[in-house]
From TrEMBL:
Keyword Hydrolase part of the UniProt annotation: no
E.C. number: 2.1.1.182
Annotated localization: Cytoplasm
Residues annotated to bind S-adenosyl-L-methionine: 17, 19, 44, 65, 88, 108
GO molecular function, one term: 16S rRNA (adenine(1518)-N(6)/adenine(1519)-N(6))-dimethyltransferase activity
Family classification: Belongs to the class I-like SAM-binding methyltransferase superfamily. rRNA adenine N(6)-methyltransferase family. RsmA subfamily.
UniProt keywords, alphabetically: Cytoplasm, Methyltransferase, RNA-binding, rRNA processing, S-adenosyl-L-methionine, Transferase
InterPro entries, A to Z: KsgA/Erm, rRNA_Ade_diMease-like_C, rRNA_Ade_methylase_Trfase_N, rRNA_adenine_dimethylase, SAM-dependent_MTases_sf
Superkingdom of the organism of origin: Bacteria
Protein name, as recorded: Ribosomal RNA small subunit methyltransferase A
Taxonomy of the source species: Bacteria, Pseudomonadati, Pseudomonadota, Betaproteobacteria, Burkholderiales
Enzyme class: transferase
């Protein structure tokens, strides 16, 4: 480790696994492809493996780091090319991060907060160009899963309503220090334009999707029994004897829009 980081140990409470393999660092950077004047915001820069590539491509970057020791080192190492936000990304008011800019968000997300953080970032989806994240492979597989898949679920539906999702490639445990016990994957998320998303009451949509997948083996008739009648489900062309995993995003939107 460089410049004052020799004694820094990955902190379990922050879910730290530092990317160190130059092959994978370079491949991820090429996938993101930062350009001059891009407003790059990196979550959890850690020991700056990816940060250096983002700065090299864009000329400047912003980073959100919760670890005080790493934050101090980052400020010292990149005094002129990195704006550091010392905060928990999960509690950060993202609407105040470069509020007048279109953001490109990147990061190696801690596995223990990945899902809530992805939902939290939806608050700024309207001005995000794209998001590239490294996450646990199982989580990415769920994010991009198609209807009918065993891993298709609430996370799939909610994120696919708002974003176009693409799994890019897997990253092996050996690319990190310390090596995690799981394989990681890179996912690309591109927010949809408003005209690509059918109007829906978000709270109702969330409620319907959560209830439908809460007990996956139940039919929609039973899973949604407290929210919709069988007749209402049929009224929008959805078969109430199906299970949640058989429905695409558009079908859930129809269910949520029943008056």
């Amino acid at each position: 480790m460089q410049n004052g980081l020799a004694g820094h140990r990955a902190r379990k409470r922050f879910g730290q696994n530092f990317l160190h393999d130059e092959h994978w660092i370079e491949r991820i950077a090429r996938t993101i492809d930062p350009k001059p004047e891009d407003t790059i915001v990196e979550i959890g820069p850690g020991q700056a493996a990816l940060t250096r590539k983002m700065i090299a491509g864009a000329g400047y970057a912003t980073a959100v780091e919760i670890d005080r020791d790493l934050a101090a080192w980052l400020k010292e190492t990149f005094p002129d090319t990195l704006t550091l936000i010392e905060a928990d990304a999960l509690k950060l008011d993202w609407t105040q991060v470069h509020p007048d800019a279109r953001l490109r968000v990147v990061g190696n997300l801690p596995y223990n907060i990945s899902s809530p953080l992805l939902f939290h970032l939806m608050t700024v989806a309207d001005r995000v160009i794209d998001q590239h994240f490294m996450l646990q492979k199982e989580v990415v597989d769920r994010m991009v899963a198609a209807p009918g898949s065993k891993v298709y679920g609430r996370l799939s539906v909610m994120l696919q309503y708002r974003y176009r999702m693409q799994k890019m490639f897997d990253v092996p445990p050996g690319a990190f220090t310390p090596a995690p016990k799981v394989t990681s994957s890179i996912v690309r998320m591109i927010p949809k334009n408003r005209d690509e998303m059918p109007p829906v009451n978000w709270e109702r949509f969330s409620e319907i999707v959560a209830a439908a997948f809460n007990q996956r083996r139940k039919t929609l008739r039973n899973a949604l029994g407290k929210l919709l009648t069988e007749e209402q489900i049929k009224s929008v062309g959805v078969d109430p004897t199906l299970r949640a995993e058989a429905l695409d995003v558009a079908a859930f939107v129809k269910l949520a829009n029943i008056a």
